[in-house]
Amino acid sequence: MTYIETQTKENKMFLAGKWVSRSKSIKVFDPQDNRLIATVPAANEEDVLHTIGEAKKGAKIAADMSTHEKITILNRAADWIYEHKEKFAATIACEGSKTIKEARKEVLRCIETLRISAEEARRINGETILFDQMPGSEDRMGYYYRFPIGIILAITPFNDPLNLVAHKVGPAIAAGNAIIVKPAPATPLSALLLAEAFEKAGLPPKVLSVITGYPSDMGESLITHPAIRMISFTGGLSTGQEIMQKAGMKKFSMELGSNSPVIVLEDADLEEAVESTVSGAFWAAGQNCLGVQRVYVQEGIYQNFVGRFLARTLKYRVGNKFSEETDMGPMISEKEAKRVESWVNEAVESGAKLLCGGKRKGSFYYPTVLENVPTDCKLATEEVFGPVVTLYSVPDLDTAIFQSNNVAFGLQAGIFTQNLDYALGAVRKLDVGGVIVNDSSDYRIDAMPFGGVKGSGIGREGIKFALQEMTEPKVVCFKVAVKR
């Protein structure tokens, strides 16, 4: 079992290179036993305005940093995290829902995210432009290059409290921007540790801030201030829509979740499909934007699949998240576990069949599988963000694709088949940002473009693609006196 400090720690927030306290604080609890583990400052609107003012200076500093300086700082931060990886993993597991095994994987992904950011910093290229393609411009030549946009606001969720922060901070620094991070109130400690890593790596003051607290205490300046040129938000659809309505003329990158589908056809490798979909449904207690929520199984293998799926689910070990034997820990709070419980109860009362699970103990909600969920239930249409999966029997691929698309979300989908024509047909017809063939929807590497369509958001993360979002092209044209 990993050692966790039992004494409550009073943390400071990181504003423009300085660690500061405030008289008012918020409490951070371990959701497993509701134990108070830390306090962090509760920032107010004055803190917000101060941080933005300092970030204006930080944006100029960041824009003047050379490429090799940014590369060095990003790699040093990655090195520092690697040297303290067990502390980072323990912090993720302690403040959030992940088991210690899941937390260690997130730390390694964070390191990879920062190293990719360092690599992509050297590849922010432009192109020459042939101006003489237009008659009358024979005496012109030029190019475009990409420049940083200024100050980025990153609003991050609780479910990946380190790597999702790194996915915003890494490319922002690589692009030469200043960035203000507002982590989820439930899980601020990992983001503060990441700020410490960048401080140790030599990032100039004012380039990065991590401001903690509740939005209600900060006012609306954090999202409405005209100096904030881009908002990168990962969270729920309703919150994302509210931010966009209030923020005004800015760039947005919005990853707003999904209720991801997986299709299993009769020619699929059933053992692989079952293993992947079970893991995809219950990783991090189902609190995962890519998590498998709906599985459409071709009717000829449906009963066989269900039997195998239930057998594997019932082997899932739920318990102490610091035990190396545990597969799944608690949800982020008892309130969230009760919400999921109510959604499952609604589906059962509406005619769904509960195959296993459906039990709650405090903030723990046990892996739950249902079938025949009516199409008007929340479980069928909304993102459950919990350890619940629904199974459906379908006659053919076209029906599976239709039902997969018949929701307001479209982040990623999975399909299991050995038929290349079926796979390519699904790739073309599924209305999502990514299709994973012979794996579940819950697959991602940190270098790929990541994002969705419809209610799943706008823009793309993944370092190279986030860099495009965090920079703008500037055209340079020379009129020259050279005669041909």
Poorly predicted runs are none
CATH architecture of the largest domain: 3-Layer(aba) Sandwich
The main sheet orders its strands as 15-18-19-14-13-21-22
Quaternary state of this entry equals single chain
CATH topology of the largest domain: Aldehyde Dehydrogenase, Chain A, domain 1
Q: CATH H-level name of the largest domain... which superfamily?
A: Aldehyde Dehydrogenase, Chain A, domain 1
Largest sheet: 7 strands, mixed
For the CA atoms, what is the radius of gyration?
A: 24 Å
Give structural notes.
It catalyses: (2S)-3-sulfolactaldehyde + NAD(+) + H2O = (2S)-3-sulfolactate + NADH + 2 H(+). Part of the sulfo-TAL (or sulfo-SFT) pathway, a D-sulfoquinovose degradation pathway that produces sulfolactate (SL). Catalyzes the oxidation of 3-sulfolactaldehyde (SLA) to sulfolactate (SL). Belongs to the aldehyde dehydrogenase family. Keywords: Oxidoreductase. It comes from Bacillus salipaludis. The protein is α/β, with parallel strands linked by helices. It folds into 2 domains: 264 residues, Aldehyde Dehydrogenase, Chain A, domain 1, CATH 3.40.605.10; 187 residues, Aldehyde Dehydrogenase, Chain A, domain 2. 39% of the residues lie in helices and 23% in strands. The strands form 7 sheets. It has a 7-stranded mixed sheet, sandwiched between helices. Strands 10-9-8-11-12-24 form a 6-stranded mixed sheet, sandwiched between helices. Helix 5 packs across helix 16. The longest helix has 22 residues. It starts with 8 loop residues before the first strand and ends in a 5-residue tail after the last strand. The mean pLDDT is 96.
